[in-house]
Design brief:
It is a single chain. This protein is elongated. Helix content is about 20%, strand content about 45%. By secondary structure, it is of the alpha+beta class. The chain has a four-stranded antiparallel sheet.
Length: about 70
Amino acid sequence: MNIVFLSITIQEKGRGDDYRAFLDWADRDTMTRYQLRGYGATPGQAADDAWAKYNEDRDFYIEHEEEWK
């Protein structure tokens, strides 16, 4: 696998204490882009949750995949 980290995007879910983070990465060998989500009460906690999932077992937490162009 030739993994490329792409981005983390934070989004408020509607209240001031509920955030989600979208972490995107791609595999250059298969030209597939993947996304997982993290959640938390602050933007930092959501990003930390997404990053922990990515480092723990990113393939297990995949919520979306598409062709990477």
